[in-house]
Specification:
GO biological process, one term: plant-type cell wall modification
Order of helices and strands: HHHHHHHH
Organism: Nicotiana tabacum
Number of strands: 0
Radius of gyration: 18 Å
Number of helices: 8
CATH architecture: Up-down Bundle
Protein name: 21 kDa protein-like
Helix content: over 70%
CATH superfamily: Invertase/pectin methylesterase inhibitor family protein
Distance between the termini: 59 Å
GO molecular function: enzyme inhibitor activity
InterPro entries: Invertase/methylesterase_inhib, Pectinesterase_inhib_dom, PME_Inhibitor
Largest sheet: none
């Protein structure tokens, strides 16, 4: 029974690692058809982000559709963050299946899932706001996009805070912390691009 529990714990960790790699090392089929100028555009823009290496890995695949459009780049970054948050939600929800989960841990996982759900919703609102920058209320929409992207980081922090300072299964805590780190990094990069949109 103990061997099974250890195996199951290892499988969860493996799943988290695989999903993390899929987030940070996306398929580059689109990038193959990109002009060097478009790829260089993305690389240059990524330099101002919090995590430039991750920015390049996740956004260069979209260089051919971004071309030299900073607004589209921001939207792509937000969409990448949405995928990251959705994948994190799957990882978090599966922690409930861990053997020996305490009542407190189950409650913390449930709260975390709500935080991630809020994060996905706010990222979608940010994408919607970015899509309305051509209107008369451009500044208002841009401010909304920044607010929503910032709120996502707060949501991810709220999830990890729910597991801090308490006795929690270290494997569960590690997997959730890494999942939230992905959301924070991807959202931080999107926010950086939005903040520098007209700079």
């Amino acid at each position: 029974m103990e061997a099974y529990s250890t195996w199951k714990s290892l499988m969860f960790r493996l799943l988290a690692t695989v999903l993390y790699i899929s987030l940070t090392h996306p398929a580059v089929t689109e990038a193959k058809d990109s002009k060097p100028a478009y790829t260089n555009f993305v690389k240059t823009k990524c330099k101002i982000t919090t995590y430039p290496s991750l920015c390049q890995k996740t956004l260069i695949p979209y260089a051919s559709s971004v071309k030299s459009n900073s607004t589209i780049l921001c939207i792509k970054a937000l969409n990448v963050a949405i995928k990251g948050a959705r994948d994190a939600s799957v990882i978090v929800s599966r922690q409930k299946e861990q053997k020996g989960i305490t009542r407190y841990e189950a409650a913390a996982i449930k709260d975390c899932m709500e935080d991630v759900k809020d994060a996905v919703y706010e990222l979608k609102l940010a994408v919607e706001a970015m899509g309305h920058l051509g209107g008369e209320d451009k500044e208002f929409q841009l401010s909304n996009a920044k607010t929503y992207a910032s709120a996502v980081i707060t949501d991810a922090d709220s999830c990890t805070d729910g597991f801090s300072g308490r006795k929690v299964n270290p494997d569960v805590k590690d997997i959730i912390n890494r999942s939230m780190a992905v959301i924070i990094k991807l959202s931080s990069n999107a926010l950086s691009l939005i903040n520098h949109l007209y700079v």
